Amino acid sequence: DVKVTQSSRYLVKRTGEKVFLECVQDMDHENMFWYRQDPGLGLRLIYFSYDVKMKEKGDIPEGYSVSREKKERFSLILESASTNQTSMYLCASSDSHMIEAFFGQGTRLTVV
Amino acid sequence: DAKTTQPPSMDCAEGRAANLPCNHSTISGNEYVYWYRQIHSQGPQYIIHGLKNNETNEMASLIITEDRKSSTLILPHATLRDTAVYYCIVRGAGGTSYGKLTFGQGTILTVHP
Predict the structure, then answer these.
(1) Closest residue in A to B33 (Cα–Cα)
(2) What is the pLDDT of residue B23?
(3) Does B24 have pLDDT greater than 80?
(4) Judging by DSSP bridges, how do beta strands B107-112 and B9-13 pair with one another?
(5) Which residues of A have a CB under 8 Å from any CB of B?
């Protein structure tokens, strides 16, 4: 079974902290994605990566950065967390054919 | 990518077929129709996709109209575990839209005993 694992299920951070959300996939997938999900707004794409060290902005990249140093790992970084970044964060991966995206369980981040 | 329109919610009796509609009237020739679902507290799960032919797999069937402006996802024998939010997504096969899955609000399907 393809597995996409997010490092934390729940996270509480303080305003201004630097926050790292980690995602690891075990299927040698080329593509990896970070989404956030908010009530009434659905899932919105933050960043995606189609190869190691490559990244593309999604629809809402402001306030976020990403890192992909190894193929299996895609990190989402909040340089200075703010309360409006309180959300559910979902990581996904897919192979180069992009037929199916596999999602992790999500990280519920609360910024206080 | 083309925009999709889905009803906000639907109900279905357990054991019956659930037919979830989706309108995508601005779909272009090389765009695929994808369906995902999200069960409460989990990440979205791929169900099925198609271009213009009807498709069937172990989870569901996808019926795409001949003009491709709408489609229907069919769960042939709905169970309580099929209660979820169902997303219809149109995605391009290349260019800048490649790889981007744009999720709308979806349809909340509730399966009743």
Answers:
(1) A99
(2) 96
(3) yes
(4) parallel
(5) 4, 31, 33, 35, 40, 42-45, 48, 50, 56, 58-59, 90, 92, 94, 98-106
Closest Cα in chain A to B97: A58
Residue B99: per-residue pLDDT: 61
The nearest CA of chain B is from the CA of A34 a distance in Å of 11
pLDDT band at B91 (very low <50, low <70, confident <90, very high): confident
Please state whether beta strands A65-70 and A73-78 pair in parallel, antiparallel, or not at all (unpaired): antiparallel
Measure B48 CA to nearest chain A CA, in Å: 9
- CA–CA min distance B14, chain A (Å): 27
- The per-residue DSSP string of B28-57 comes to -TTEEEEEEEE-TTS--EEEEEESSS-EE-
Output the pLDDT for position B94: 57
Question: How high is the pLDDT of residue B103?
Answer: 85
Question: How many angstroms separate the CA atoms of A57 and A66, rounded?
Answer: 10
Q: CA–CA distance from B44 to each of A43, A100, B35, B51, B99 (Å)? A: 10, 11, 10, 21, 16
Q: Kindly report the average pLDDT of chain B as a whole number.
A: 91
**By three-state DSSP, how is residue A111 classified?**
strand
